[in-house]
From TrEMBL:
Gene3D superfamilies: HUPs, Isoleucyl-tRNA Synthetase, Domain 1, Methionyl-tRNA synthetase, Zn-domain, S15/NS1, RNA-binding. Keywords: Aminoacyl-tRNA synthetase, ATP-binding, Coiled coil, Cytoplasm, Ligase, Nucleotide-binding, Protein biosynthesis. One of its GO terms (molecular function) is methionine-tRNA ligase activity. Residues 648-701 form the WHEP-TRS domain. This is methionine--tRNA ligase. Residues 672-699 form a coiled coil. Its EC number is 6.1.1.10. It is an enzyme of class 6 (ligase). It catalyses: tRNA(Met) + L-methionine + ATP = L-methionyl-tRNA(Met) + AMP + diphosphate. One of its GO terms (biological process) is methionyl-tRNA aminoacylation. One of its GO terms (cellular component) is methionyl glutamyl tRNA synthetase complex. Belongs to the class-I aminoacyl-tRNA synthetase family. Signal peptide: none annotated.
Amino acid sequence: MAQKIREAEGILRTVLKPGETITPADGEKNILITSALPYCNNVPHLGNVIGSTLSADVFARYSRTRNLRTLYICGTDEYGTATETQALKEGLTPRQLCDKYNATHVETYKWFELGFDYFGRTSTPLHTEICQEIYLNLAKHDYLERLEKEQTFCENCSKFLADRFVEGTCPHCGSDDARGDQCDVCGRTLDAVDLINPRCLVDKKHKVVTRTTAHMYLKLDALQSSTEEWIKQSWKAGKWSPNAVINGDGELIDARLKGGLRPTPVTRDLSWGVPVPHVDGKAHEGMESKVLYVWFDACIGYPSITANYTPEWKKWWFDQKNVNLYQFMGKDNVYFHTIYFPSVQIGDGRPWTKLHHLSTTEYLNYEGGKFSKSHNRGVFGPAAKETGIPPSVWRYYLISTRPETADSMFSWADLIAANNNVLLNNFGNFVNRALKFVVSQYDSVIPDGGDAPGPLSPNDAHDAEFIADINNLLKDYIDAMDHVKLRLGLQTVMLISARGNLYLQSSGLNKALMAESPQRCAQVIARALNLIYVLTALIHPFMPATETQLLAQLNAPPRAVPTVLAHDLLAGHTVGTPEHLFKRIEEKMADVFRDKFGGNAPKEDALAQAADATHVVPGMSKRKAAAAKKAAAADKAAAASDAPKSAEVLAWEQKVAAQGVVVRELKGKPKTPEVEAEIAAAVEELKKLKTELAELAKSSE
């Protein structure tokens, strides 16, 4: 099929050749991306996916659509107490356990179409080498000290016990199942020596006593002033997302910083980990059989995994001038990436590439509660594919509910509505309508609408408003994505497709237009197809498989994100075969999925039948249960109508959704008179849009 695409620098996306290694270039903006290393003793759930790996993948893909040199690194965090204890429970060696769960993580992320440039693991020789080198540099610069403390000791095992190898009675609430680091009943943080009647996890009959032992500590107190200075500089330059370390005014609010950092241990009494290295040819006294603490070595996993990807890893990790480091994680990992690891890098003394932009998320909860592996509640690992819902739909929904400023809730009903109302009725409808028209009326060949190759004029006689709207939305999209506002970026993509729907409708694209005004008809369809070509690049970060389908239907190569709408697919270009991008999901399937993933024993035929009963969350009050039934009845009533929504309604729905994001973003900022005024204005605009939407919906009935 003939391809006719405008030839100009920057239109097409730079695609790596097979086997090509990505290295940064001097004088260019190079993007290094990491997502928090998932711990290798369990399977990830949807909250883990959206909290770090999927969010980082979206930004990495976006950076590539801007033709920036981009490297996305991740891998499993494999050392530490949790691995040893889980291996003990499963009757495996730590290595066997890590091999098992590493494979599960790889399978899960592959299904979700996460495009790591390299996904590695921390249990490698290079990881040991880099960790030990950093430890020795800290020792050389006098940032390590040896301290003695009381610790539990198992006389039968003849070894000191790390915190999670000890259980006993909580001294605060009396629970008999408290761990050496925390009591899950009262939530208190514990020290293993405070447990009453401590027991060894290896054998509860073993005798556990308290003895004095030595560990090496990192002098965070000596590094605090340098770390604080760096935090303030990086926060401002990289425009960090709101977090618990520094607020929107640049004030340090972390309690540990305000109270003064204290020395923190960097060694543990374990066998599974990086051995503590010798200093000047000999071990620190008492460190002969110890390993490095997992939180000391975990963040070093980022450079060590990069080292396993390329021997030129230092070009990425020792070039603060040319490399911008973006790190994605849940809110519970912020301390280690903004205080602990940067302190280690500063103490190491070498010119490390440090954090540029921090992107954190709050928690994603599940259907009125929390994800729970022990109670089989929620979607874990690769189980998402059991629903039959494609990865693109999962990716869209998870990003659209990304908990950027507050906790959010996963809902099966919302996921189905997102598929049916947004992806199918808005995005899919626009693409399918335009492509089918050119196939049926122009034999699959883009007609000559009179536009010259290149950007469309904002002063166009027919479509000045349309072109201006698209160009403004493209600016909004790039601004949102550059600032890692992924949810807003996705909303903007859907606003663009809704504007495309409105354009087709207002232009009157049909056979009558073709007969009465063939030149105008050719112009409209050519411009619509070029907008679809733009949408392929915009949708790629969020739904890469959907982009692949679109490119096949357009018969076009991957393109870069443009700054303005242009005539890039030229007259004479032959498109492919139109196919539906999305399929409708029956609303009643929400109950089926709730039943399957709600914590009860799954039914073998759960996906083969649809339950009619309204789902009530276990433990829900009568009042809330009644409200849930009322809401379900309303959903069913709304679903009873098969009438498609008009393009105007779809466009206004997207405007309401986008304005809602603006309001939530403002409410997440520190409260000042100026911000309060912005919030009030944004809320008024939201109310206005909702009123206009209601009027539009009523008039289209």
